[in-house]
UniProtKB/TrEMBL annotation:
Keyword Magnesium: no
Protein name from the UniProt record: Iron complex transport system permease protein
Any single biological process term in GO: siderophore-iron import into cell
Localization per Swiss-Prot or TrEMBL: Cell membrane
Organism: Pseudogracilibacillus auburnensis
InterPro entries: ABC_BtuC-like (IPR037294), ABC_transptr_permease_BtuC (IPR000522)
GO cellular component: plasma membrane
Transmembrane regions listed in the UniProt entry: 12-29, 65-82, 94-112, 118-138, 150-171, 191-212, 237-264, 276-298, 305-325
Pfam families assigned: FecCD (PF01032)
UniProt KW keywords: Cell membrane, Membrane, Transmembrane, Transmembrane helix, Transport
């Protein structure tokens, strides 16, 4: 791709993504079992709208949309950082086990320690962090390599999955409350969930912008980065920690939502290149768009059934990813 063509794509995407973001947000607010017009939404926010519409918008749809935005942004940012650190477009929080670590901690909290459910975001982050540290230590041999990290992550992912299944078998009478969370979704999420995850999500996303420079330097290769005076292992470690925090925040509220951190950064990378100055913000906005749109479709198009958004994203993401693989655009 020529520099001129890439710059043109970046310009177009910088215009298209904000427009799509606004359109999808309003689509999610208006569409559902009860359709609400844009005029009524205006009345709800700026005048006295109908009480039933006001309750639907303010109490049900608005917090769910905001949570979807934060979850999608966190997952996409996490995937983008992991793919850069590991120099592998197959890296994402779900595949290398970071999401499973957060998920195991969340399941332990929900099933064994339900009285501490208010600590779910912190527990998910700690689970993701411990998993990341374990992967890093297992992959260490006078330094780490992206291949070793991927292999260690796959093994850890399988182990954590087995432990989660074991807990659900032992405490089968409590599994019913956990199953929707395992499928991934925003069903029943409201202001309470937004209040305890928003600070973590916003701080994590802000910190991710400070990771743009080190992520770009790591793309040059370890030797080149060291020649420029960079502490490669320290930077790689800190970026993995940040990616774990982003994944843990998303998992704590939305459950095991897959493919967002894998597909979104990969598509954006194809369109705008590897420069994290563009890749990261476009991935965050695109991840938010995808999750909010998919959640709207999952709760509206299959009425009266509300499909978990994680199932819908897997059904859409897996075939799309296979198409990219078939066209040899993955590796």
């Amino acid at each position: 791709m020529t520099i001129q063509k890439r710059n043109l794509r970046r310009k177009y995407i910088s215009i298209i993504t904000p427009i799509l973001f606004i359109v999808v947000t309003f689509y999610s607010l208006t569409y559902g079992p009860v359709s609400i017009s844009l005029a009524e939404i205006w009345h709800v926010f700026f005048q006295d709208g109908e009480s039933i519409h006001q309750k639907i918008i303010i109490d049900v749809r608005l917090p769910r949309v905001i949570i979807g935005i934060l979850v999608g942004g966190c997952l996409a940012a996490s995937g983008a950082l992991l793919q850069g650190v590991m120099k592998n477009p197959l890296a994402d929080p779900g595949i290398i086990g970071v999401s499973s670590g957060a998920g195991l901690a969340a399941i332990i909290t929900m099933v064994l320690l339900p009285q501490y459910s208010f600590l779910l975001p912190i527990a998910a982050f700690i689970g993701a962090l411990i998993t990341s540290l374990a992967i890093y230590v297992l992959a260490w041999d006078r330094g780490t390599s992206p291949v070793k990290i991927i292999l260690a992550g796959v093994a850890i992912n399988a182990l954590l999955g087995a432990v989660m299944n074991g807990i659900m078998v032992v405490y089968s009478e409590r599994v019913q409350a956990v199953l929707p969370w395992l499928a991934g979704g925003l069903t029943g999420r409201g202001w309470f969930h937004l209040e305890f995850m928003a600070p973590y999500a916003i701080i994590s996303i802000i910190l991710s912008f400070f990771a743009i420079k080190p992520a770009n330097l790591l793309l040059l290769g370890d030797d080149s980065a060291k020649l420029l005076g960079q502490k490669v292992e320290v930077q790689r470690f800190l970026l993995i920690i940040l990616a774990s925090l982003l994944a843990g925040v998303a998992v704590s509220v939305a459950g095991l939502v897959g493919f967002v951190g894998l597909v979104v950064p990969h598509i954006i990378r194809i369109l705008v290149g590897d420069d994290y100055t563009f890749l990261l913000p476009f991935s965050i906005v695109s991840g938010a768009i995808l999750v909010v749109f998919a959640d709207t479709v999952a709760r509206s198009w299959f009425d009266p059934i509300e499909l978990p958004v994680g199932i819908l994203l897997a059904c859409l993401g897996a075939p799309f990813f296979l198409i990219l693989l078939r066209k040899r655009r993955i590796l």
